[in-house]
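Table 4 source record.
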Amino acid sequence: MLSWFTIAYNLIEGIVSMFFGITDDSMALAGFGADSFIEVFSAVLVLWRFRSEAGAASGISIDRERRATLGIGTLFVLLALVTATGALAQLRTGGHPATTLPGLLISTVSLSFMFFLWRAKANLAKKLDSSTVLKDADCSLACIKLSAVLFAGSVIFMADAGLWWSDAVAAIVLSLLIAWEGVGTIRGALKPNFVGGCNCS
C-alpha cells in the first residue's frame, strides 16, 4: 500500500512540477518534478521484489534487480547533469521564473506527504527486518531534502524578486543532491553483498 501510494502521489507531483517548471521557466521546479518520476521507479522496484517473493517458488533474481538499481543510479546522475546545465545556462542569461508560488506550494505539500511516507516505511522496515524497505525509506528521506531546498529557494525569491538567481542556485543544489543519490545508488548496487532495494540515501 505504501508503494502504491508513493507511485500515485509522485506521478501527480512529477507531472504538476514539470508543467509549472517548464511553463514558468523554473529549473529548480522542473528538476524536482523529474526526480519524482525516479521515486516512482524506485517504488515499482519494491513492489516487483515483494510480489515476486510472494508468488514465486524461485524467488527474485538479484541480478535483474542489480541491473535495475544501476539503471536508477545512472538516471539520477544524468538528471543531475541536465538540471545543473540548465541552471548554469539560466544564470548566464539572467533568466528567472515570473513567480515561485507553484514551487512553494508543491514543496510544502511534498514535505507533508514525504515525511509521512518516510516514517511509515522506516517503521515498516524495522517490523519486517527488511533492508529493501529501509532503503526505500531512505529515498523518501532524500525527497524530503529536495523539497526543503525547493521550498527555501522559492521563499527567497518571493521575499526579494531582485534575487532572481535564487531559482538557478536552488536547481544547482538540487543537482548536487540528486548526483549524490545517484552515486550512492550505483555504489550500493556494485557491492558484492548487494541484496536489492533502493540504495539512494
